[in-house]
Every structure is written in structure tokens, then in C-alpha cells.
Structure to design on (209 residues):
């Protein structure tokens, strides 16, 4: 139970995309292939729900061996996946209708480990489908940035190093989107227990349309 007043929010939605990729030459454009979210109750510090969609890429439909090795996502998984538009609709329905989060207005926030997911990847994906970025995805809390500021670190730490900082073991597989969401949630709980402020001042913003 979180009994402090360090946060303005009732809920956090932890989000972590996985996307098509290759090494050493990165494929362009990257496309989202996993769209997961975890819902964390800011009062109880418990994960209340999770949701995950695998998405079938369109521009580069065949996954590289590097991508499968990194994420654990295989070709048959994305071949059986849904369109990005269907995944986005499913996430929006989960937010709005299943959990009624729009009814609490500014009292919920997205949390990511870095700015890439909502500042870079989502706008890029929306351009591919010729859609505008929905308003709710235009601001988020970058847990790396909040950690760096509060704990006065010289640079931002990635998820693996944040887990180590709090003496937490990795749960599941790194670069599995849903597992990363769970691990980021565990880091978030540690920071809330340390009374790290998560407020509207913590937001990062995207100005893509």
C-alpha cells in the first residue's frame, strides 16, 4: 500500500513496444509488432490488469533472425497477429471501456522506460497508417528521467540497470514487451515506495500530429 502523497495519479499504464529490427543495418521503417500495457494501481501498488497484442507488420512482414533472437517473437506469432489499427482500438477500448480511465481525467498516466515508445515509434507507426496520434498518447512519464533527477545520477539508466539499482531480479525475458512492462512496473513501485514524486511536472511530451 502506498500511503504517501508523492503522486498526482490514481493509475499508471506502463507501456513498452517491440518493433521490427535488424543488426547491424536497421530496417526502415520500423513497425510495432507487440503492443502491451500493464495497469498499476497507485494506491495499492498492485498490477490490476495487463493486455498484449501481437501485430502483423506490413512494410517488412518477414522478421529478421536478429529481431526474433532479441524479442523472442517468432514469424508465426506475427503472421497470426492483428493489424496495428486493431491493436490500437483494442488498447483504447481497454482504457476507456474496461477500466473507465477517461472518467478520472488527468488522474492516470502512461509510464515508459525512455522516450522512444511514444515520442518516436508511435508517431512513426501512425504515419504509416495515415492516422493522427491520439491525444492520450502525447504525454507520458519517462521513468529513466525521473530516476536520474531524483537519485541525482550522472546519466539515465536502462531497465536492466534500474532493476539492479533496486536489487530486483529480471522477471521473464528482456525485450519481451509484456515482461518489460511488468519489470518497469516493479521499478515504479520501488520508486513510489521511496516517495519519488510522479506528478504532472514529470511529463514528457510529443507534438506530432
Amino acid at each position: 500500500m502506498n500511503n504517501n502523497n508523492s503522486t498526482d495519479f490514481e493509475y499508471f499504464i506502463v507501456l513498452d513496444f517491440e518493433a521490427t529490427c535488424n543488426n547491424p543495418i536497421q530496417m526502415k521503417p520500423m513497425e510495432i509488432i507487440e503492443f502491451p500495457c500493464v495497469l498499476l494501481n497507485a494506491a495499492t501498488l498492485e498490477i490490476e490488469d495487463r493486455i498484449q497484442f501481437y501485430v502483423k507488420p506490413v512494410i517488412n512482414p518477414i522478421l529478421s533472425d536478429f529481431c526474433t533472437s532479441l524479442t523472442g517473437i517468432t514469424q508465426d506469432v506475427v503472421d497470426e497477429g492483428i493489424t496495428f489499427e486493431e491493436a490500437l482500438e483494442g488498447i483504447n477500448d481497454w482504457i476507456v471501456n474496461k477500466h473507465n480511465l477517461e472518467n478520472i481525467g488527468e488522474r492516470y498516466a502512461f509510464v515508459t522506460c525512455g522516450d522512444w515508445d511514444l515520442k518516436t515509434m508511435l508517431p512513426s507507426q501512425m504515419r504509416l497508417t495515415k492516422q493522427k496520434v491520439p491525444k492520450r498518447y502525447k504525454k507520458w512519464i519517462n521513468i529513466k528521467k525521473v530516476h536520474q533527477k531524483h537519485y541525482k545520477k550522472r546519466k539515465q539508466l536502462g531497465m536492466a540497470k534500474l532493476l539492479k539499482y533496486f536489487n530486483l531480479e529480471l522477471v521473464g525475458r528482456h525485450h519481451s514487451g509484456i515482461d518489460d512492462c511488468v519489470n518497469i512496473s516493479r521499478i515504479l513501485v520501488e520508486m513510489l515506495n521511496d516517495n519519488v514524486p510522479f506528478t504532472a511536472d514529470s511529463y514528457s511530451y510529443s507534438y506530432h500530429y
